[in-house]
Amino acid sequence: MTEYSVRDGVAIIKLDNPPVNALGSKVRSGLDKHLKQANHDSEVTAVVIVGKGGKFCAGADIKEFGGGAKGPWITDIGDYCDKMRKPVVAAIEGMALGGGLEVALFCHYRIAVKTARVGQPEVQIGLIPGGGGTIRLPKAAGLKNALDIITTGNHVPAEKALKMGIIDQIVSGDIIEEGIKFAKSKIHIDTSIVCLRNKHVKVDGDVDKVAEAAMTKVKSKYRGAIAPIFCVRSVMNSARLPYQRGIDLEHEYFRDLQTSSQSQAMRYAFFAERAITKWQLPSGGNYRTKPLPVRSAGVIGAGTMGGGIALCLVTSGIPCILVEQSKEFLDKGMEIIKTQLMGTVRLGKMTADQAKQCMGILRSSVNIDDLKDVDLVIEAVFEDLKLKREIFEKLDRICKPSTILCTNTSTLDIDSIATATKRQDKVVGTHFFAPSYIMKLL
Questions:
Q1: Residue 252 known to be catalytic
Q2: Is the pTM of this model over 0.85?
Q3: I want to staple 22 with a disulfide (CB 3.0 to 4.6 A). Which of 18, 61, 197, 219 is the partner?
Q4: What's residue 70's pLDDT?
Q5: Does 102 qualify as catalytic in the annotation?
Q6: Which domain holds residue 133?
Q7: Which of the residues 3, 43, 93, 122 is marked catalytic?
Q8: Centroid of chain to Cα 213
Q9: Which of 227, 258, 289 is the last residue of a domain?
Q10: Among 102, 178, 250, 324, which one carries the catalytic annotation?
Q11: Is the pLDDT of residue 277 over 90?
């Protein structure tokens, strides 16, 4: 799971665990073994760690979290790296995320190509960085930057990471050649000077005020979530406690979160989102069924749910016709959609041009017959079985035979709705969660 070679007196350790070079136990064991091999080889003057296939490392192997990780942990490898007097350089292509960034932070130097990204996304699966990230990232990037990166889980482009101090140099050309050249230029520098273990955390302002502001922010933004709170606590430990005490507490927090119901649920969702795209049979084979292309859609009902579903569709690039029986209700629904889009623009999550494009593929109508050519219809009227059956009976007559007819019902029997049609195999429940253009659960 790791490859080792020596070129021009520089040891090259290549992480090899496709598709993203995750830090499984075999990768960690190989990294540990080859670092020691390079350190003990008198012909080797420096080390470069690189990922195979244009990707440095996207983090730990999450599948190992449930069954107990084997082999050396990231901090064990990092502790050894800290003691090395030969410069160790992380040469980053693609991404260095989670445990991948932690490995890079244990290296004495970090170089990256312009298109690389770094980050600590563990909070998105209900965890904190568990391999020294909450203690070392603040030493590289400063307290406020580290708090932002770790509590949001957002990726940081290489050029921004350079300005923060996470990356030491942006390079172009072959990443291994650049890594060798950079490593050889650092051979005569005392590694203890650049080792993050020995650096102080850069704090902009009063530590207690920074901590208070960060805690207030995560409690408000991520209500009920425990991982962001532990992220703040652990990052603040980097500024308040001795290095090893901070690392020990980080391990403790990580273990507590790992067994929490929140993290278990978020990890389940992480794998479920990826599994559903594979269309695999329980035996491991693939279904021969191909997904039906949805080139256009219709939504019936311009209320809170219907308008939100229409917005969900157009922001996904699917042209949509929003149908309501009353022009007054229709105009009100369209106005709410415009307001929601502008709010998204103000938050910086969409440009004004993108919002304009969304409105450009959204039509409104008081005539249900306008849905005759769409590939999919989602009904979102109030919970009345008789009304829904009447709508589906009309849709069955109006829509082309291949159109999928969906209901957003939360309580009614979908079979009872389907029997109003002659296409019961094409009637499905699609229950959205409000606000439907934000919530990812269907």
A1: no
A2: no
A3: 61
A4: 78
A5: yes
A6: 2-258
A7: 122
A8: 24
A9: 258
A10: 102
A11: no
